[in-house]
Amino acid sequence: MRRTPILAAVALALAPAVGQAATAPPAPAVLQLQITGPNRALGGTEGAYRVQVRNTGAVTPARDVQVSVPIPADAFLASRPAQTTVSGRTVIVRLGTLAPGTSRFRVIGLRWERNASGQRCVEGYARSDTAARVSTARACTRITPRGTVDPVAVTRVRVDGPERLTAGRVGQFRITVTNTAAAAAQGTGIGLVLAPGMAVARQSGGLAVSGDTVTWTVGRIPAGASRRVEVSLRSGPTIRGLRCNVAYAGAANATRLRRSGLCTQVVPPAG
Questions:
Q1: Is residue 163 domain-resident?
Q2: Residue 73 belongs to domain with CATH number
Q3: Number of domains making up the chain
């Protein structure tokens, strides 16, 4: 049979479609986040919260799984595993790759402020490079305040340090905590959450480092008195731009956790 020009053109147009069978992309990973914690807690105590993610998909591994857990306003981070980082008031839990049908978990510790009361919820958001959707979950705890709290507050936290720092160099930072209340602050603690790219350059007495958080225990601060701690921080050699370190302080008989920050401009080396 002799082909007409029109039939020949149609056959040529259909040839690639016939020769190349369409292949459907694999189904994405499906994340299922679950957060569990205590149903009840007493103000001033620590609670353990389990953050677990399961890949319920059947084909695709969930790669680079991470869960963002914002810290509630009247709580602070008490403990965390090594596979986590802190960015401001958010804990980032890294779980790596999850094969289909598998799960992994981490446990973080939150300490509630002494005057916290009512229902407080810890929320989380799980995501993966190969998952189509973000999975959310929450665990709620009813907090009972621990009686009447002595009206002591660490009312002023100040951070001093260099406004500019050359990449790869060391800067000296100071945190001053002042108790402006009428009674002594008991069991005072100070913490510093380091900005990404900043690290402790030299260890000194009384200083403890856990991941990107530095802590000190300074104990009792009399009424009207101050305590100061210092730390040497080094910026990474490739870091550029504004880097902000956040300090916080609290006391066993204080009603609030106080915070302050200092931002430093990291600049490239001269020449």
A1: yes
A2: 2.60.40.10
A3: 2
Answer yes or no: is 182 within a domain: yes
Burial class (CB in 10 A: 0-12, 13-18, 19+), 52: buried
* Contact between 140 and 242 (Cβ < 8 Å): no
Q: Print burial letters for 115-135: b (CB count within 10 Å at least 16), e (below 16).
A: bbeeebebebebbbebbeeeb
Task: Specify whether the backbone of 101 is left (phi greater than 0), alpha (psi in -120 to 50) or beta.
Answer: left
Q: Per-10-residue mean pLDDT for the chain, 271 residues long?
A: 53 51 79 94 87 94 94 85 84 94 92 84 94 93 71 73 93 92 84 91 82 88 91 92 89 77 90 68
CB 221 within 8 A of CB 179: yes
Cα separations in angstroms, 228 against 64, 163, 224: 40, 19, 14
Beta bridge partners of 166: 267
- Residue 18's pLDDT is 47
Q: Which of the 8 DSSP states describes residue 6?
A: H
Nearest residue to 111 (alpha-carbon basis) of 262, 260, 248: 248
Q: What is the pTM of this model?
A: 0.52
Residue 61 near residue 72 (C-beta atoms within 8 A)? no
